[in-house]
């Protein structure tokens, strides 16, 4: 099978969220089953990261989309990348989606329509004369026009569209239709129209051959009004036709505390003295006081979805009970400021680092006792998997992938209602467990024994591809 895997970010080069980690790991896990090639916009970090790029084709302007070329390159381990080169759209400072201040690029509709159009052209064999796709796997709203462009150009190439987070939809003014080359006839309730605006993600939901999301629980949740973000109707229709699946994400094999080079001291299950050295290292690096109490970690995007407000609300209670909190992440200014204010009030008990660094995150998972994940919704979540592998017990809301990957009372703690009392109840259970060393030892061993390999996920995707072609 020749699979074109389309993504707007990948941790090989640039990462904003969990999609980047998935986009690096899943194509590699799929190489046992298919000829998988990744297509990504030509951001500066991508161009720096691929040294063997060569041009395989060029495309002329389409509608009001600019001309572009497509380069072919490879990573050191042989993963094949197609890179959409259009300097005016992608070679900018900032993130894939916005400037350094966090504001979205005003032309994101053009940027990701061009990317989607490029992927469709490549899939149809119109760019690289030596390769065409049997199936396109598109991810999130930035790639969601790919099934649409294939449909509108009468290309009979099956597509799988994966929803990593339905809350991010790519909604633009309907005046974008003609400039983006989207047929006016598609602007209706059964097409790309969403409350009289153009919805990129709805194009994926409507035109893709099959929809997936990143856990079975989230696949059920998004067919309801509570989690469907206004799209529950079309999602329920696809589910009724057996065209919506939940396939749980995995994590890559580098998340092993016995071999992870980022840690001060590698350790395995039962090596609690060695693990304690990592805790001391984290406390030292973040300026926290030496303590015999539990260390809680928040490693997340600092946004409303992640329940950061609940952590802020509960921070003083954690400190008063003898706990400490270390935070790393970036997100909404109001949460960043509130966390920094909490640090100012309790500088030896609360440490906050605005930003994200993978090495630092690994150290925190290895040194913390508990990982805070009070997300309002969580399609899959990766931090709870990382945490368990490194012996940090996650505390999460019973939703999405958290419900599927945390065994309540065995490998972590779950609470049922997103509220301060619900979250505090789980915090109390965590403090109680921390005081019972045998119980803590049992739970840590169980958590570290959890297997979150990509192998099973890759088998599920490969089977879905075969049934779709």
Automatic annotation (TrEMBL):
GO molecular function: alpha-1,4-glucan glucosyltransferase (ADP-glucose donor) activity; alpha-1,4-glucan glucosyltransferase (UDP-glucose donor) activity
SUPFAM superfamilies reported in the protein's UniProt record: UDP-Glycosyltransferase/glycogen phosphorylase
Keywords attached to this entry: Glycogen biosynthesis, Glycosyltransferase, Transferase
Keyword Glycosyltransferase carried by entry: yes
InterPro entries in alphabetical order: Glyco_trans_1, GS/SS, Starch_synth_cat_dom
Function: Synthesizes alpha-1,4-glucan chains using ADP-glucose.
Family of the protein in this entry: Belongs to the glycosyltransferase 1 family. Bacterial/plant glycogen synthase subfamily.
Name of the protein described by the UniProt record: Glycogen synthase
Organism annotation: Bradyrhizobium amphicarpaeae
């Amino acid at each position: 099978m020749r699979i074109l895997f389309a993504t707007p970010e990948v941790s090989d080069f640039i990462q904003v969220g969990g999609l980047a980690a998935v986009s690096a790991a899943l194509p590699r896990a799929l190489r046992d089953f298919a000829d998988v090639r990744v297509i990504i916009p030509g951001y500066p970090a991508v161009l720096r990261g691929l040294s063997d790029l060569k041009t395989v084709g060029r495309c002329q302007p389409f509608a009001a989309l600019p001309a572009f070329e497509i380069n072919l390159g490879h990573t050191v381990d042989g993963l094949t990348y197609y890179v959409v080169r259009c300097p005016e759209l992608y070679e900018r400072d900032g993130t894939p989606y916005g400037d350094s201040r966090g504001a979205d690029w005003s032309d994101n509709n053009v940027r990701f329509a061009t990317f989607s159009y490029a992927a469709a052209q490549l899939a149809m064999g119109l760019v690289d004369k030596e390769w065409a796709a049997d199936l396109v796997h598109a991810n999130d709203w930035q790639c969601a026009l790919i099934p649409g462009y294939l449909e509108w150009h009468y290309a009979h190439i099956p597509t799988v569209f994966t929803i990593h987070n339905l809350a991010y939809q790519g909604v633009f003014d309907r005046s974008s239709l003609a400039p983006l080359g989207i047929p006016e006839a598609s602007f209706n309730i059964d097409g790309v129209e969403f409350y009289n605006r153009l919805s990129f993600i709805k194009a994926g939901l409507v035109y893709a051959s099959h929809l997936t999301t990143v856990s079975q629980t989230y696949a059920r949740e998004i067919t309801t009004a509570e989690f469907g973000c206004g799209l529950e109707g079309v999602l329920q229709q696809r589910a009724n036709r057996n065209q919506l699946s939940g396939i749980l994400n995995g994590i890559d094999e580098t998340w092993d505390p016995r071999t992870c080079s980022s840690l001060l001291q590698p350790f395995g299950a039962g090596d609690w003295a060695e693990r304690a050295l990592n805790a001391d290292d984290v406390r030292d690096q973040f300026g926290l006081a030496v303590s015999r109490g539990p260390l809680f970690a928040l490693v997340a995007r600092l946004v409303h979805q992640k329940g950061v407000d609940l952590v802020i609300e509960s921070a003083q209670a954690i400190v008063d009970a003898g706990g400490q909190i270390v935070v790393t992440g970036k997100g909404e200014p109001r949460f960043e400021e509130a966390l920094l204010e909490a640090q100012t009030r309790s500088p030896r008990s609360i440490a906050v680092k605005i930003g994200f660094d993978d090495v630092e995150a690994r150290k925190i998972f290895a040194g913390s006792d508990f990982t805070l994940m009070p997300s309002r919704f969580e399609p899959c979540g990766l931090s709870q998997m990382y945490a368990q592998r490194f012996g940090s017990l996650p505390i999460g809301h019973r939703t999405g992938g958290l419900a599927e990957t945390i065994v309540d009372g065995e490998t972590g703690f779950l609470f049922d209602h997103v509220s301060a009392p619900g979250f505090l109840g789980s915090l109390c259970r965590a403090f109680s467990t921390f005081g019972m060393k045998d119980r803590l030892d049992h739970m840590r061993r169980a958590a570290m024994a959890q297997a979150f390999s990509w192998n099973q996920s890759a088998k599920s995707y490969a089977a879905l591809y075969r049934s779709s072609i």
